[in-house]
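User: quick one, sequence for these tokens?
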């Protein structure tokens, strides 16, 4: 059985796992990131790989390759972390450094959302002639499109759903970027402003919603409508067959999907309603980045 190591790199943690070609996650480990400087951050990536090898009782010679998901802009062909706003890497030759350290040749590097999207696509049963969209709602908002079995990248910046302007009710129907009115930090800020409580967290907002607190229900309804507006742009432009949602906001609050679908249906015409039945929350949850990165080692997908 072929096995690879998938690595999901973030500003707060680095997750690594042993992944089979079919997408089974056999072993997983996690270490805290150290973004204080580029070398300490790299050392943490090495640590995550070594820990998962130790946990699995495998050696690097047993591994088909490394798959690495990195936030921000990535030079995929050369394995360079070009720019990340939450990491100390600028044009950092990540693939070469890992190749030299572990003496391994096959390394696949890509943006972390693309890695997660690949795992979701493989697990969704989407046909190669269908259009698949992965949307992540967490600290930020982004999306990835897979069309005819390949990533749609445009000129290199496709899928930045969080940058799409939507009409914000709380801002007198001004255009605001979706990320600023629907991502986790935005939800938290809305609640703090409305309730005048500086200690409120995003999870408290959803907890208050379930308890029926009217001020917080209003915020979640507003967020659902904002996300629906962003999704309507996707619905109109590419008319996807399936949409899968990941990210902590969606995964930890799956009820939000039904609210979003109710709002989206209002914007859509009947010919667009088909996608409502093909929208779901990730079943891989926080492991999709690791699984996708590992599976990409076995793929020639670009």
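Assistant:
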């Amino acid at each position: 059985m072929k096995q690879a190591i998938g690595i999901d790199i973030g500003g707060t943690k680095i997750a690594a796992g042993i992944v089979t070609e079919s997408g089974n996650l056999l072993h997983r480990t996690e270490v805290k990131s150290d973004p204080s400087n580029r070398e300490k951050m790299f050392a943490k990536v090495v640590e995550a790989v070594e820990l998962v090898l130790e946990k699995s009782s495998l050696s690097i010679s047993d591994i088909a390759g490394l798959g690495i998901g990195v936030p921000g802009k990535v030079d995929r062909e050369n394995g360079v972390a070009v720019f990340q706003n939450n990491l100390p890497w600028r044009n950092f030759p990540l693939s070469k450094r890992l190749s030299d350290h572990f003496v391994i040749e096959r390394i696949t590097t890509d943006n972390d959302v693309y890695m997660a999207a690949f795992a979701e696509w493989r697990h969704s049963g989407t046909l190669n002639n269908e259009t698949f969209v992965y949307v992540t709602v967490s600290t930020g908002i982004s999306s990835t499109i897979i069309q005819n079995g390949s990533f749609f990248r445009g000129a290199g910046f496709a899928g930045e759903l969080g940058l799409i302007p939507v009409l914000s009710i709380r801002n007198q129907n001004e255009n605001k970027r979706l990320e600023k009115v629907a991502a986790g930090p935005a939800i938290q800020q809305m609640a703090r402003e409305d309730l005048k409580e500086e200690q409120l967290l995003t999870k408290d907002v959803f907890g208050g919603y379930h308890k029926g607190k009217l001020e917080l229900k209003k915020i979640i309804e507003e967020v659902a409508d904002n996300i629906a507006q962003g999704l309507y742009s996707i619905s109109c432009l590419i008319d996807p067959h399936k949409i899968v949602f990941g990210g902590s906001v969606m995964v930890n609050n799956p009820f939000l999907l039904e609210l979003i679908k109710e709002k989206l249906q209002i914007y859509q015409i009947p010919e667009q309603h088909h996608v409502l039945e093909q929208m779901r929350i990730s079943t891989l949850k926080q492991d999709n980045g690791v699984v996708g990165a590992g599976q990409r080692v076995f793929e020639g997908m670009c």
